[in-house]
Amino acid sequence: MSGTAIFWPMLVQVALVYVIYALISRNRIRAVKSGNAKSSQFRENQVEPPESLFYRNNLANQFELPVLFYAACISLFVTGGASTVPVVLAWLFALSRIAHAVIHVTSNRLRYRRPVFTLGYLFLAVMWVWFALHLAGVI
Description:
The structure is a single chain. The chain has about 140 residues and is mainly alpha-helical. The protein has a single domain (about 5-135), classed as Four Helix Bundle (Hemerythrin (Met), subunit A) (Up-down Bundle). It is built from five helices and no strands.
């Protein structure tokens, strides 16, 4: 597997962030046009209209755990540790983030969202363990 393969799931995660940005913008515009929000309220962004609340929350979520994902991917690449296992884990993490985002901005049912989040959390944890073992020369 190419050493740069670790960047493809990163690009998928970045694309997800851009999609969420587009969706929040679309829903904010709809809220303003329908009279449920005023454009001025987005200046300080203290009150989010219901039409875009799940999107805003999801967008914030995309800058929490995924930050550790980006760091793990880059660290694995820089140290030559981006082998098959971490690349597969990176893909699993990125796919779990897509599933999490879809659930978050649609039904937002914790019954489904939490297990998907937990899976991504665990995939990322294993990536960091793999990185530590790689640095230690164990794998």
